[in-house]
Design goal:
Blueprint: H1 2-9, H2 12-21, E1 40-41, E2 50-51, H3 53-59, E3 69-71, E4 76-78, E5 88-89, E6 130-134, E7 137-141, E8 143-144, H4 154-160, E9 163-165, E10 173-176, H5 177-190, H6 194-205
Parallel strand pairs: 5-8, 6-10
Antiparallel strand pairs: 1-2, 1-3, 3-4, 6-7, 9-10
Length: 213
């Protein structure tokens, strides 16, 4: 172990420089996809790429539970995909008829939550939002159910997308299969109690404001 530390000692200044550079955006601050102005960064994507608002929403349609950060001009702040008018739409494979899912107007996404709260903790003003519990954090999500003729019930659409609903009648909180598997592993291998596991999840969601989760 000491030998590894001695090897690293010659590179410690370089390592620190790189870590500090990661706290800010790359120069020039351009979207990695369209080369427009970059605003959002996704730590969940490989290389933590920078995106413009439009590309951030488009690229994360298949990664709806990634946690993004927004450049404020001085630092990256924890943000939410909801701020890029991101809407979770269910796969067409769950529809019996090819049609366009229900749309939600952009103005319904605006939140009246206190500005001091991190954006990803803002509860949507729309009554039809879901609390999605994932290993990445607790998410407040707006969804567009498939309303095609003959389409499955909402709880069946969720199950087909790998999300387990708490209730079949009153959909408010759901769990991804990923977090159910992770909790099972933590319980079997580490003896983690449900209360402690959720306490950790609250801290992952917001290390500064876990009591708001």
């Amino acid at each position: 172990q000491n030998e590894f530390l001695r090897e690293w000692k010659d590179y410690k200044e370089l390592y620190l420089d790189i870590l500090l550079q990661l706290e800010g955006p790359p120069e020039p601050r351009k979207c990695s996809h369209c080369l427009g102005g970059g605003t959002y960064r996704c730590p969940g994507c490989f290389g933590m790429p920078l995106f413009c608002t439009s590309c951030c929403g488009d690229i994360h349609r298949t990664h709806p539970f990634h946690r993004v950060e927004q450049w404020t001009g001085t630092h990256f702040q924890e943000s939410s995909l909801r701020l890029v008018c991101f809407l979770i739409s269910f796969p067409k494979s769950l529809c019996l008829i090819e049609d366009v899912p229900q749309e939600v107007a952009n103005e319904e996404w605006e939140s009246s939550q206190p500005v001091a709260w991190p954006p990803h903790l803002w509860v949507p003003d729309t009554p039809a939002y879901l609390v999605v519990v994932d290993t990445s954090s607790v998410h407040y999500c707006n969804l567009a159910w498939c309303n095609c003729p003959g389409s499955p019930d909402p709880h069946i659409q969720l199950l087909g997308a790998g999300i387990f609903p708490v209730s079949t009648a009153c959909l408010s909180t759901v769990f991804t299969f990923k977090i159910l598997d992770d909790f099972l592993c933590a319980t079997v291998e580490c003896g983690t109690a449900a209360m402690n596991y959720f306490s950790k999840l609250k801290r992952i969601t917001s290390n500064v404001f876990p009591h708001l989760v």
